[in-house]
Design brief:
two-stranded antiparallel ribbon; 40% helix; 8 strands; globular; alpha+beta
Length: 148
């Protein structure tokens, strides 16, 4: 079984807002996973154990004594949803999360080692698609600026 989620895969939502998580990512995600708002206009799909680690780190501080930790905990848990596969292997994308990031029909799954990002295809293409020469040049410059 692969250890990390790498690469990207295009997919479309069906008419009922369902999607299939690509098999190569499902293997790494394992059994239960959650979807929640991510950064910069995407959603995160996180294995349950990774979400547990994150929440334990946030809540190790006493939520009653630390309002920041409590706010972060509320932000994460109140907007997270478990993904449940139907008999055909589809999961429902919560409508409020799709609307939050502007997903209409076409999406891109992007592997981020231990979790997935789910992007509206238009946003992905404008920012990260290396077939776009400007994106490729920008990526190369960013790598150079890091001294890699």
């Amino acid at each position: 079984m692969p250890k990390f989620m790498l690469g990207n895969v295009r997919h479309q939502l069906d008419d009922k807002g369902r999607m299939r998580i690509p098999a190569k990512y499902r293997e790494v995600l394992g059994g239960t996973s959650c979807i929640l708002p991510g950064r910069a206009g995407c959603l995160f799909i996180v294995p349950e154990d990774k979400l547990t680690e994150t929440m334990e780190a946030v809540t190790e501080h006493n939520a009653f004594a630390n309002s920041e930790a409590n706010d972060i905990s509320t932000d994460i848990t109140s907007n997270a949803h478990y993904l449940e596969e139907d008999a055909q292997g589809r999961v429902r994308l919560p409508a409020e999360l799709a609307k939050l990031v502007g997903i209409k029909k076409e999406i891109v799954f992007a592997g981020k080692m231990t979790y997935l990002e789910v992007w509206p295809a238009e946003t992905w293409d404008s920012r990260y698609n290396v077939l776009n020469r400007d994106n490729l040049e920008r990526m190369i410059e960013r790598i150079r600026s890091l001294g890699v």
